[in-house]
Specification:
Blueprint lengths: L1 H7 L4 E5 L4 H13 L4 E4 L4 H9 L8 E4 L2 E4 L1 H9 L2 H8 L6
Parallel strand pairs: 1-2
Antiparallel strand pairs: 1-3, 3-4
Length: 99
């Protein structure tokens, strides 16, 4: 779990993904469209990392999105934040994007 929290705190926006996950691709595309360049950590071959994400409360474990070092949620949570207009504000506050 320490490895996950360490990686999640190194950049303003961090996404843990799998290369075969279509929702992961959609969340990454959304962040890029908003102007963010998140750190992407693919856990395809790292079962320990995926298990650590689950122990931190990430359910489902992939995609797991962190903004400003804090767990924001999975794809459903991120899309909800985007629809209600708070995702962009969170990214600005974490300095993942500038306006």
């Amino acid at each position: 779990m320490d490895r996950v929290t360490d990686l999640a705190s190194k950049k303003a926006a961090v996404i843990f993904t799998k290369s075969t996950c279509c929702m992961c691709h959609s969340i990454k595309a959304l962040f890029y469209e908003l102007g963010a360049s998140p750190a992407i950590h693919e856990v395809d071959h790292d079962a320990d990392m995926e298990w650590a994400l689950r122990r931190l409360g990430c359910n489902p474990a992939i995609p797991a999105v962190f903004i400003g070092g804090k767990y924001v949620g999975s794809a459903r949570d991120v899309i909800s934040l985007h629809v209600d207009g708070t995702l962009k504000q969170k990214l600005i506050e974490a300095r993942a994007i500038w306006f």
